[in-house]
Amino acid sequence: SSGVCSSDLGLTRTRQLVGSLFYMPPEQLRDKPVDTRADIYSTGVVLYQLLTYSLPFEGESTGSTLTKIISEDPPPPFRQFALSYPPELEALTLKALAKNRDQRFATAEALAMALAEVQDHLKQDSIKEYLTKAELLQQSNELQQAQDYLLKALKLDRQHTLAARQLSAVRAKLQAQLSAERVRQLKQQAEDAYGRDEFDAALAFMNQAIELDNNPELQTLRTNIEQIGRASCRERV
After folding, report:
1. Alpha-helix runs per DSSP H in 59-142
2. How far is CA 182 from CA 40, 174, 187, 194, 209, in A?
3. Which DSSP state fits 73?
4. How far is C-alpha 149 from the geometric centre of its chain's CA atoms?
């Protein structure tokens, strides 16, 4: 029983060592004093993993992994894995993984600022893409889809003036389309009622249509319905 426990403890310790080894900077493995730049290195390993789903330094054994960490450069993530990210993201990741700690970011704040700049570039690129797609969709009168892309752009930057202006214009066009469709329906209902000699109902539909769109064609149609309706009443009398 005690032998099993000893074996389990040894295995656990081995796992802990290997698990943390991948994130240790070269100076720590050389038993030199470490500072906050060791954390920068560990963060660089995590960034590399997030980009590539692999570790920057991983050998077939603990010894080969140690050698890679101490003396080898990591595989360039973008060329190795064909990633489509800003080149600045690769540069700052490799900078965080520099063997010489003096070549890394001096502080976590400096690394965070560099990441924020990359994030802003990505955001601006996405907004530009959304605006381009929205403009093309407007040209083909696909207004609902254009509105969706403009909302995506404003979700990234609520203060984006051009996106807000375009969204306002698209929504006005959508409202006009809805209004035109409603006018068309009311006009059809008026004509159907007129065909059944239901002149009062026809006039009611026409009045609703004119409230939405007071154009000469609708005015003329309403006048004709009124005149024919009055003539029909006189004939019945």
Report:
1. 62-71, 77-81, 87-96, 108-139
2. 62, 12, 9, 18, 8
3. P
4. 9
Q: Which of 186, 183, 187, 180 is nearest to 221 (CA)?
A: 187
Six token digits for residue 33: 């004093």
Write down how long the chain is.
Answer: 237
In the predicted model, residues of the chain with pLDDT beneath 50 are 1-19
Query: What does the CA dihedral 57, 61, 66, 71 come to, rounded to 10 degrees?
Result: -60
- How far apart (Å, rounded) are the C-alpha atoms in residues 109 and 40? 10
Stated as kind and residue range, the H or E segment containing 97 is none
Kindly report, residue by residue over 139-175, the tens digit of the pLDDT: 999 999 999 999 999 999 999 999 999 999 999 999 9
Structure tokens at 157: 């930057």
- Per residue in 16-34, pLDDT tens? 444 489 999 999 998 888 9
8 Å CB contact between 68 and 45: no
